[in-house]
Amino acid sequence: MITLRNVEKAFSHGPAKTYVLRRVELDIQAGEFVSIMGPSGAGKSTLLHILGMHDPSWTGEYYFDDLAVHSLDHKRRAALRNSNIGFVFQSYHLLDDQTVFENLELPLSYRDVAKKARQSIVCDTLDRFQIVGKKDLFPSQLSGGQQQLVGIARAVVANPRIILADEPTGNLHSSQGKEIMDMFKKLNEEGTTIVQVTHSEVNAAYGNRIVRLEDGWVVKE
Amino acid sequence: MDSLLRDLRFSIRSILKRPALTIIAIVTLAIGIGANSAIFSLVNALLLKPLPFADPDRIVALWDKVPSRGVERNEVAVANYLDWRAQNKTLEQLGIYRWWSTNLTGADSPERVQGFQVTPNFLDIVGVQPLLGRGFSPEEDQPGKDAVALLTYSLWQRRFGADQNIVNKTISTNGVTRTVIGVMPPDFNYPKGAEIYAPLAIMPELARSRGSHAYLGIGRLKSGVSLQGAQAEFDTIARQLEKQYPETNTGRGVVIYPILEDTVRMYSTALWVMMGAVGFVLLIGCANVANLMLARASGRQREIALRTALGASRWRIVRQLLTESVLLGLAGGALGVLIAYWSVDLIRSANPGEAARFAAGWSHLGINLPVLTFTLLLSVLSGVLFGLAPAWQLSRSDLNSALKEGARQATSSSHRLRGLLVVSEVALSLMLLVSAGLLIRSFLQLVKTNPGFNSDNLLTMNLVLPAAKYKDEPQRAVFYSELLRRVTELPGIASAAAINHLPLGGSNSSTSFLVEGLAEPPRGQEFLGRYRVCTPNYFETMGIAVLKGRGFTEQDKAGSQAVVVVNETLARKYWPNTDPIGKRMRYTGPLQENPWMQVVGVVQDVKHEMTLPITEDFYVPHAQDAWSSMVLVAKTKVEPAAMAAPIRQQVLALDKDQPVFDVHTMREVRAISLALYSFSSVMLSIFAGVALLLAAIGIYGVMFYAVMQRTQEIGIRMALGARALDVLKLVVKNGMSLALIGVVAGLAGAYALTRLLASLLFGVTPTDIVTFSTVTLGLLLVALLACYIPARRATKVDPLVALRYE
Q1: Which of A5, B35, B612, B728 could hold A61 in an S-S bridge, CB 3.0 to 4.6 Å?
Q2: Mutate to test the interface with B, among A93, A109, A156 (most CBs of B within 10 A)
Q3: What gap in Å lies between CA B271 and CA B676, rounded to an integer?
Q4: Residue B408 has pLDDT above 80, yes or no
């Protein structure tokens, strides 16, 4: 599904260069649950955002379903991302002034889904995540775990083939974290590919593969 | 006191710490305050204190009125005045006066000076005494005892070199020798334009006249008498006179106005509209600065929270913040004074409509103590106004969260407040723009209106032949005929003629007449027409088309068949389906004195005042009614102003004591006649332009700030799939919804407000749909642009950067 070849990312400081990622070679198959681990500053989140096509400034080759992402323009990358990838953030990043329902509706509206269809998909998702009772609440009225649940629901609402999660339980206590990881596991079992960045060996154990990064190098798979 | 000083010290430090914001705030306020001070200096000089009277509230103007004809202000007849004076008990003094321009001759070149003939009690009424010499004594209104004159200070300085011994010296006016009895104080020149005063001698026949309405009434109310009380008494007197003299007084009444209102009526609406407009500009400016302060306030929450934590009361916080804003206001005011000073200089040099000559109080125009006081008050008020919202906002911020979150988040009530300010700015701008739009359209209509003559290459100048020298009509006719012959022969002149009242020249005379074959109309419904006296060649010189028959020729002279030329409106009204040529009309009165005049021509309608509808006009030849006061018009082959000197030489060659005055090209005459409209529309356009700019900056500022505040949110949206267009739409929609609310409020406001402009509009209704829609569209486009720039910036948000809070 995803193939990275010799992917590098660096920041220039005059003539000097600081590498964040070095010669990354990575293959992710459809249906995998991959955990990216490593110390702070190893390049985990950077790698995730390159996979998520948010970061356009890197070198190397990136194939998504054999499509050469590195040679796509900004517009096509955005289209490819919108139809295949969902995102979950450590700080949930729900929009404060929108209800749970509206937060879930947002990705669909950016994919030009008609209003009726949007409402029906959001209702199904609310049902699936058992948060129907929360649909009219604002994020500030939810606990951290509930907010992250909505964050995951928002990531899957557009039916992505792969979910990229950046330390999804980083702000949660352990019981809430477990609930969220169970949800990822369930989604994975239903066929969604998951790539998570995590510091937690326990959370990594939910996946079937761990990629370790150090100073931008993939040191171990 | 100590804490106030500390507040001041801290405020200065705080203001200096943010120089960019401080400069923007001060400049914005300076524009608003400066414009207000400049217009206030006009209002103060021309509307509030234009009259140099001791007790202006008790001084009133009295006019004759004819409600059935819609005439609200008509000059007074002497016999009526004498009756009013004898019968009233509410006025301490009552007098009359009239325009009296006179040729001042003597050692220097002859000069036309503007004067007034006044009843001897005139100075008692206005409560002013001469600087030198004495005022008029009661018996000086008797014929034979009236050969005295009072000079204004400016004439005394200019013409007589401030001669301290001028009193009892003699001068020659219109060939009559008069003794100077006094000089008026420096600031006294009422009625505006006056340079010399002479007593009004009431001849016995004048004392009996109720038909000749040529005098202006002025009176002083008795102490404790109200205007309404005096009006009621004069209504009763007028009704009695109606019964007593039905021939002349049927339908006539008296109307009394406060002298101030009466004096400034021509331009008071325009000036108050301008004052309102600059008020709007300042409000918009204050809203902008308040927005800046609110933006800054969100960065000061931590500081204020700390102060509160250290024990500062809410009032103390508000006082500290208001001190800062008032200081900014004062700095804006100081710069505003400079702007006002410069603006007043510009207005003074523009001298719209020869205001320096005719607007009472114009000489007081300037940045004086009342204007500086006004500016100071306005600066403090502005400071409080724009400082109040941020102060209120900051003083109520939540101590706990502010200390925890630091300066990162603005509250939603701050957003609402900023939104409300933008809505107000848009609404105020729209009202101002619509008003300016209406005035501009009105002015364009006036400029586009064909006056019925051709202004190109026309030079005009006034002459008044003194009665003492040119005693009878033939003498006057010969003078003008010879002058025109000489002028026509000048190289550079195509043709020349003269008329008693120049179109757009501001003077006028009407008279009632009878039409042969039509029954004499009942009293109060007489046929009225504007009465013009002109020489041959007048129509050709002015480019007024002769539609039927002919214009006047040299054969239309005294003693030959009395002839008249009518305009097409008069012809259409009285001879609707027949050829008017050969028909006859005559002035109302005994046939022996007013014989029938034969219509020999029909000419194109001419506008005598651009803003008034065409009326019935008729022209008689100068040779058959030789007026002394005429306006010479010359069609030139060269630049018209260049012919002024040669023509003046011809006048002096004919009579070395004969001055010419008011020398203008016809284009200038037209411009002067439209000055109030052009001045109002230019001024209001400038203010509306500034308002639009400030509102655009306001919207831009709010949207820019909103984008900054929402950077992370926009990043999240982009991470969730939002495209550039989605982000663009989000920001623009946000800003435009504020603009739209403002537009709706502004349209409602403009709909109510523009009615006040009605008297300044011509050919455009106060609710003109074209103006309303064009301005609305224009404002929305500007708002769109103001939103678009921050929106573009929002599309450049890098989601990675925005999400780096992770």
Answers
A1: A5
A2: A93
A3: 10
A4: no
